[in-house]
């Protein structure tokens, strides 16, 4: 991937990771209560999301298709596979 790709990374648990990897669950939902200015900047500028499996260390990257915020929740979506 080229250097101009802006990626935000989130850790996922083993159960959700495989759903996200397969495309059954093509989004990640995050509470934003503890997000500071740097995290909001990453979120706003990200074109891709990396989902990291906290148990195995595996990860994958998807192009973001939508970002939605509602109250203290951020939903980052990508196209299903």
CATH class identity: Mainly Beta
Number of strands: 5
Helix coverage percent of residues?
10-25%
CATH architecture: Roll
Please characterize this protein's 3D structure.
With 81 residues, this protein is of the alpha+beta class. Helix content is 22%, strand content 43%. It is built from two helices and five strands; from the N terminus they run E-H-E-H-E-E-E. It has helices spanning 14-22, 37-45, and strands at 7-12, 27-31, 48-53, 59-70, 73-78. The two termini are 19 Å apart.
Features of this protein?
81 residues; Archaeosine Trna-guanine Transglycosylase, Chain: A, domain 4; 43% strand
SSE blueprint and pairings:
Layout: E1 7-12, H1 14-22, E2 27-31, H2 37-45, E3 48-53, E4 59-70, E5 73-78
Parallel strand pairs: 1-3
Antiparallel strand pairs: 2-5, 3-4, 4-5
What's the quick description here?
This protein has helices at residues 14-22, 37-45, and strands spanning 7-12, 27-31, 48-53, 59-70, 73-78.
């Amino acid at each position: 991937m080229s250097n101009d790709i802006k990626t935000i990374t989130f850790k996922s648990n083993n159960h959700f990771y495989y759903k996200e990897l397969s495309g059954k669950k093509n989004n990640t939902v995050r509470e934003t209560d503890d997000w500071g200015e740097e995290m909001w900047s990453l979120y706003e500028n990200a074109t891709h999301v990396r989902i990291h499996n906290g148990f195995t260390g595996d990860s994958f990257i998807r192009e973001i298709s939508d970002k939605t915020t509602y109250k203290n929740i951020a939903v980052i979506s990508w196209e299903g596979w």
